[in-house]
Amino acid sequence: MKPEFHIEPEVVYRKRKSHHAPHHGGAWKIAYADFVTAMMAFFMLMWILGATDEDQRKGIADYFTPTVIQMKNSGGSNGVLGGRSLRSDDGVAVHAALTGPRPASNTGGGGGGPLEAETASQDKKVNPGNSRAADQERFRMVERIIAARLAGDPTVKGLKGQIRFVRVHDGLRIDMVERADFAMFGVGNSVFSVAALAMVHSVAATVAATPNRLTVRGHTDSLAFAAGGAADTATNNWTLSSARADATRRALTAAGVDTRRFRRIEGVSDTDPYNPADRSDPRNRRISVTLLYKDA
Question: What integer best gives the mean pLDDT of the chain?
Fold first, then answer.
């Protein structure tokens, strides 16, 4: 019997040669990075629009608005105004004294004089023959700038809600109000806390750039003093509110507000409460700074 032979079929493996795509370089990475950066900026913009109100957005816009730099007469570009003056209709500081601290002479008494004369022409440009309308426009600017200062300063950012703007018969009243967890002064004295002093300086930095005269009023709650808190003692809520009003005047003056602009400093104790329903409400303890109409 003959043996059987099986011939295995020959299998040939051919390895397919791969063809790599041509090298395109790293240009796409740069384009992608630009896209991601643009998207991040877009989402940050949307977040800012959602987290701020109209006054804050106006203040931010004013801060980044380009201004004309005058080498000799510029009022400076540091701060929210960015070189602008509240008294100039086109937003360019017409003189350093209009936007910076007042001259060193702080011993004047009655007001008027050069301080008022400097801005008479500007008010006529804003609204000829109608100084009250010019004051109202200035008050709106003051509100926006103070709100922007508080929002942009981390020292006082949490105190934004403690400043209230109220239009009154005499002008614009700026109330600086206490709350349960924030006291502007020490207990029973007229010494500012660090945060409260920074808040007053934020107000002063804006108010100093206006020509309007000022009144300062101190308020207390109805809580009596612990040690013999009778009304006829040497220290009571009347003397305390007056001392706090004068302390505010001194803080405003130190921050650049001319002494001649103060028309009245007064303490009213607890006679004009913020919350009449609760005479012990911390919000009744406050300081009111009123920018007066020029024709008041």
Answer: 75
